[in-house]
Design goal:
two-stranded antiparallel ribbon, 14% strand, binds NADP nicotinamide-adenine-dinucleotide phosphate, eight-stranded parallel beta sheet, globular, alpha/beta, 313 residues, TIM Barrel
Length: 313
């Protein structure tokens, strides 16, 4: 495993971060809890110290499972969780201090810990002045309940505004060969402000592993049916061309297409580590191997070119 220290905080993360949306057990196809537990255990056994989660993943179930697995190992684990989605009220974004405080206490209880390493507003809340949100986060930090402040899904504008009121260690944006929108404004801002990017969707929710030979069809309540645009069958031509390239680069390295997707992300500016979701120990074992691959400048150039054209066709 490879590790890196966040620029503004005394926190060291593993370059592969385990994502636990699917592990939460809701909105992600069939679910087997014992497999989910083994996925977390296997990740830790393989040196993954950093786990990304959220109350929204299975309504707190992902946090509960993590809490169970990390008992007795808490000091070796870096927990990144989130706040600010009111699940009782139509998944409304709520970053008011009172709601965040309640959520923080709930996350601490479910995770069986008295501190969170990286606490991240999940989505910006347009109705709450960011100053109030940042003040609340700073208070949690002063109380020792969180070690550092990260944010998730913030635009460049949101980030710049928040930075005026406090320190931000990390940003969790959607970023992969299938989603490069953040390269225009957000990534340069992270580079100049020393904010560590920890992207999500690194494998294109499975698409970049090459597992699909035709556009997949998901049930309506499966998050993949609405959350990621590349699953829309009208983009299948561009996506297939990209996956073919991943296959050919992978073959030259005796690796898998997903490894190429992970290696590409880790080569990008400001990316400190990458969140890779998994639902089983086998997937974790395979994904960790992506850290051993390094790509040539020619391969990166070709990936840049083909990925930029995915949505053009
Ligand atoms: N901040 C946010 O708003 C936000 C949004 C989305 C995600 N996230 C975080 O980022 C994490 C990762 O994102 P993601 O889960 O959407 O996408 P991802 O990491 O690109 O894809 C993960 C999914 O791909 C499949 N997969 C993983 N390894 C595989 C392998 N070796 N072979 C074949 N299939 C494999 C699994 O689903 P199947 O087995 O079902 O195919 C897995 O759940 C989440 O778990 C969560 O922690 C955050």
């Amino acid at each position: 495993m490879h590790y890196t220290r966040l620029q503004h905080e005394d926190i060291t993360i593993s370059k592969l971060i385990l994502g636990t949306w699917a592990i939460g057990g809701a909105n992600w196809g069939p679910y087997d809890e014992s497999q989910a537990v083994r996925a977390i255990e296997t990740a830790i056994d393989l040196g993954v110290t950093t786990i990304d989660t959220a109350p929204a993943y299975g309504g707190g179930h992902a946090e509960e499972l993590i809490g169970r697995v990390i008992k007795g190992k808490r000091d070796r684990i870096v927990i990144a969780t989130k706040c600010g989605i009111d699940m009782q009220n139509g998944f409304r974004y709520d970053l008011t201090p009172a709601f965040m405080e309640q959520e923080l206490e709930n996350s601490l209880r479910r995770l069986g810990t008295d501190y969170i390493d990286l606490y991240q507003p999940h989505w910006p809340d347009p109705d709450t002045p960011v100053e109030y949100t940042m003040e609340a986060l700073e208070r949690f930090q002063a109380q020792g309940k969180i070690r550092a402040v990260g944010v998730s899904n913030f635009s460049a504008g949101n980030l710049a505004e928040a930075l005026a009121f406090g320190r931000i260690a990390s940003l969790q944006p959607p970023y992969s060969l299938l989603d490069r929108d953040i390269e225009k404004e957000i990534q340069p801002l992270c580079v100049s402000a020393g904010i560590a990017m920890i992207p999500y969707g690194s494998l294109g929710a499975g698409m970049l592993t090459g597992k699909y030979t035709e556009p997949p069809k998901f049930k309506k309540d499966d998050a993949r049916s609405f959350f990621y645009r590349f699953f829309n069958k009208r983009y299948w031509g561009g996506v297939s061309a990209l996956v073919e390239l991943l296959r050919s680069i992978a073959a030259a390295h005796n690796a898998k297409p997903g490894h190429v997707a992970i290696a590409w992300l880790l080569s990008r500016d400001a990316v400190a580590g990458t969140i890779v979701g998994a639902r089983s120990a086998d997937q974790v074992r395979e994904n960790v191997r992506g850290l051993d691959l390094s790509l040539s400048p020619e391969e990166v150039g070709e990936l840049d070119r083909i990925s930029a054209a995915v949505y053009e066709g």
